[in-house]
Design brief:
Length: 269
């Protein structure tokens, strides 16, 4: 309505200033024109108000979009940083895996080379109950009791000493090999062996006899050797035939390359 009053004042002022006396008909036409302009003005005001409302709504929506954008951008930055960290960790793990694989490859090469050397050195005893094979990355030299000891004895006989001497000649050249001497028996009870109480005693004493021969007679560093008795509890043949029992009565000399490089790699993770 403000504009209507403004138009009325405007035309009133014009009429006064020009000292024009309007006829009723012209006066009525002028008022109609003012009303028309006033309605258009009100329409424009309503449109302006609607546009202002739309502008405010759009401003709020824009603010929300900006807020969402910042949140998404922060999430992307965090996710990107995490992805980069995971990628870096994966690369490190792959590098470590390659190092471990290379060390194990070298171990396998050394193990196979040692097996070949021992087979050549001990070739003359393989028909007498000696075998060389690889299990779980280690070389096993298995000697039946008849090759090393008289029945029920812990004293190594001459043929056994010859085999151990040939074995020691190879091991003295392989300083990076750890040596475990394991005594094994069958499951038959011991009778009349004096202070030897049972198969466990017999397996331990035979293992220490072999270890002493290798260290005292063949001068292998005692720090490299471990002697253990397994008794009857790790048979290689579960049968109860004379042949099966003979297989289980044995000395196994387990040779394993030192894996200090691998252990250091694992411990320094």
């Amino acid at each position: 309505m403000k504009i209507k009053y403004l138009f009325a004042l405007l035309f009133g002022a014009l009429a006064i200033q020009s000292c024009v006396v309007l006829s009723p008909k012209k006066h009525k036409a002028m008022l109609a024109q003012i009303d028309s302009l006033t309605r258009r003005s009100e329409t424009l005001e309503e449109e302006l108000s609607r546009l202002k409302g739309d502008s405010m709504r759009l401003s709020r929506e824009l603010a929300d979009l900006n807020s969402n954008y910042k949140t998404l951008n922060n999430n992307y930055t965090a996710s990107s940083s995490k992805v980069n960290q995971l990628s870096s960790d994966l690369q490190k793990r792959e590098a470590r895996l390659k190092e471990v694989e290379e060390i194990l490859r070298k171990r396998d090469e050394a193990t196979n080379a040692l097996k070949n050397k021992l087979q050549k050195a001990l070739l003359g005893f393989q028909q007498s109950g000696l075998s060389v094979d690889i299990r779980n990355g280690k070389v096993y030299v298995s000697l039946t009791d008849k090759l090393l000891f008289p029945s029920g004895s812990i004293v190594i006989d001459e043929k056994g000493k010859q085999a151990l001497t040939q074995l020691a000649a190879v091991l003295n050249k392989e300083a990076d090999i750890n040596i475990s001497v394991e005594g094994h028996t069958d499951n038959k009870r011991i009778k009349n062996l004096g202070q030897i109480k049972d198969n466990w005693d017999l397996s331990v004493l035979r293992a220490t006899s072999v270890s002493r021969f290798l260290t005292e007679e063949q001068h292998i560093d005692p720090a490299r050797i471990t002697a253990t008795g397994k008794g009857e509890f790790q048979p290689i043949d579960p049968g109860n035939t004379p042949e099966a029992l003979a297989k289980n009565r044995r000395i196994e000399i387990v040779l394993s390359p030192k894996l200090d490089e691998l252990y250091n790699l694992i411990n320094n993770k």
